Amino acid sequence: MAIELSARRMRPAPDQAASQQVAPRQxxxxxxxxxxxxxxxxxxxxxxxxxxIDALARELGVSQTPIRAALxxxxxxxxxxxxxxxxxxxxxxxxxxxxVQIYDLRLLLEPYxxxxxxxxxxxxxxxQLLEAAGLMNEPASKDVKLAYSKFALQDAQFHxxxxxxxxxxxxxxxxxxxxxxxxxxxxxxxxxxxEEAITEHANIVTAILAGDAKAASAAMEHxxxxxxxxxxxxxxxME
Length: 239
Known about the structure:
This protein is mostly helical. The protein contains 11 helices and 3 strands, in the order ααβααββααααααα. The chain has a 3-stranded antiparallel β-sheet with strand order 1-3-2.
């Protein structure tokens, strides 16, 4: 992985690059963050295991600065834990009780946020929704683990966007504090999760863009119920 990361950044640009506009390159910090997220989601970094910053810096071929920045982001999202005088470690898998609580809360709040987002629809929110939906439909990376982690991140951003567009800051904060969305993707590392979720997201977006609060709320409720069903077998397999 170190070779891929460093080589991609050191490789000279093609001759034609100077004569055409290209999309902004992803920052090193974002790239490191997504690589670490992919390792956590795919369980390459085991739940509960200590994360050595110096070892990661050597593995990825970068300084410790972007590693620390990425770990702080992941800590804020509940993917890693930081213990004073010990360092960072991967967060444990959510317990069955925590899983139930997460989805109970989502079912209470997210249909509401989708409905309010439809009622509050503006030109700006419309553009933001279309952009978020479009990102999830872009061609996936050939690296399955990286593609999966990227979708997990985009999925979290999609739900956070709708919560923000609801205009209810308290609800948005409650959802943000209550669960780390990407963490749940460690339960089911499977392409079916992304394929079905994309279709469900499209239904939510369609309803919001139509300004149909009732349909948006129903589409979000259906999505969360389906999501819970996709994740539930993980706990059944453990028993």
